[in-house]
Amino acid sequence: MSIEVTKYQQDVTFPQQVADDEIDLRELFSVIWQGKWLIIAITAVFAIGSVLFAISQPNTYKSEALLAPADAEQGGGGLAALAGQFGGLASMAGINLGGKGGVDKTQMAIEVLKSRQFTSDFIQNHNLLPDLMAIKSWNMAENTIGYDDEMYLVNDNQWIREVQAPFKPEPSMQEAFKEFSKIVAVSTDKETGMVKISVEHLSPFIAQQWVNWLIQDINKVMKERDVAEAIKSTAFLESKIEQTNVADIRSILYKLIEEQAKTIMFAEVREEYVFKTIDPALVPEEKAGPKRALICVLGTMLGGMLAVMLVLIRHFVRKED
């Protein structure tokens, strides 16, 4: 008898719980419906605000170039071959030829391109700080740049922005690096190995110019690094030749010097040292941003969700009171 009563109680309780859930849902929709005008008003405010914000944002333009890694060995392949043949013998003379491992030259160039040191030198060498940190607008008809008068005086070439310590009126290279990293992108296609460099800027002409300068400078920097290393290695190898009388070791050392000479010669005769330009940067005709339609949609959706939450919170607070 007790089992039947318990079963009956469960059957009665379950429909009540379902009914309670249905009542809660109905109450929820009822609250939203009652607060529909407030929801509409808040959503409309956010929609209008997002439209005004989207309209106030200036157009940006993206210029990009497609690059291919240089095919030449630049001495690395020859050194690797010598390391495989005579590595043990050279180690007896205190010389480490290395192995086939190491960082890929293309990947190293990309990391150098992204580094703070390269970016700082790039900005200073080309005097990019005003066009990076103080630009306000671009005049398409006259192809002129407008700067923020509260930050930078063009005629006096003077920074006047008001900042708190430790910052100074003239932006530091750390600030410039953060801003530069936002508008410059370097990507590698894993399947083809192609490298793409892009710059997004208010001026399409500046965007194209910066891409070209980046390609020229990274090729120049990597060339200078390899030449300096080859010269230093040659001097070291020549000193080792003077210290040994073993014919086989001297033969290896002369071959190593020959490889270093090839590296220097290759660097002197080739401008595109690390990257070959496959598709050069152009002045973009169409804007890359901002995505005004997306800004308006997201702003309106955000306003609607906040309005619904506000109505529900207000209802439950009043209900508890």
From TrEMBL:
GO MF term set = protein tyrosine kinase activity
Name the residues that span the membrane.
Answer: 37-55, 293-317
Domain Polysaccharide chain length determinant N-terminal residue range list: 21-125
UniProtKB keywords: Cell membrane, Membrane, Transmembrane, Transmembrane helix
Extract the Pfam families matched here. Answer: GNVR, Wzz
Q: One GO term of the cellular component aspect?
A: plasma membrane
Give the membrane topology. Multi-pass membrane protein
- Residue span, Tyrosine-protein kinase G-rich domain: 276-315
Q: Which locations, inside or outside the cell, does it occupy? A: Cell membrane
Q: The organism sits in which domain of life?
A: Bacteria
Its recorded name reads Wzz/FepE/Etk N-terminal domain-containing protein
Species per Swiss-Prot/TrEMBL record: Shewanella holmiensis
